[in-house]
Amino acid sequence: MSLFHRKYLSIGLGGLGLILCEVAFAEIIYPVVTPPVCINNLGETVSFISRPTNRSQVAAGMANRDSDGNPVIYRVSYELATPAFQKFVDFHECAHHQVGHVDQPHPPRNSYDHLMNESIADCVAILRVREEDNESYRLVIDGLVDAMTAIGFPKTSTDSRISNVNNCYENYGSSAEFIEGVLNSERAR
Ligand SMILES: [Zn+2]
Q: Measured in angstroms, how far is the CA atom of residue 138 from the centroid of ligand 1?
């Protein structure tokens, strides 16, 4: 148990930047959506926990384990993002649980492995949008572009992220198949 706990503590400290993935600036307050179903690669149900912060100007999600080792997604200031983009952030953070990123050592920020993990999570997320909320696709893309631009990412970063999301949406099979492929390639390593 103590080993278990220590591992998460280190992930928690190192990972704060890592899994704080999605942000959106907004002045409008939106209703917060009901979280989607999220079950991780070990069959554990992931809990969504709202963390409103009165000084935050961004909506963000963070995938982690809590101090008891339970898989969780913290939702911060979700009311600042459109419902469509809230769902995408939920799906994206859930994907980090579904493919086991949460339990892996954290790759260095902006390393190839880090960017690959983000691309995988984006891909799963947009496939779930296609499966569960397809009519919001355009709003999700708009939300991504707005958020990345507002945060100050260079246009090339935004373009490559959108390109990945688009490619997954247009060309990939189901989210379940994609997740299975990722898990298989991890087992083969
Ligand atoms: Zn992420």
A: 20
- Reported as a pLDDT band with limits 50, 70 and 90, residue 126 is very high
Residues with CB under 5 A from ligand 1 (ion): 21, 118, 121
Contacts of 121 (CB under 8 A, 6+ apart): 21, 92, 93, 95, 96, 99, 101
Gap from CA of 30 to ligand 1 centroid (Å): 22
Centre of ligand 1 to C-alpha 25, Å, is 17
Instruction: Enumerate the domain spans of the chain.
Output: 2-188
In this prediction, residues 140-149 reach a mean pLDDT of 88
Residue with tokens 């709202």: 50
Per-residue pLDDT tens over the stretch 65-113: 999 999 999 998 888 889 999 999 999 999 999 999 999 998 998 899 9
Instruction: Give me ligand 1 centre to Cα 129, in Å.
Output: 16
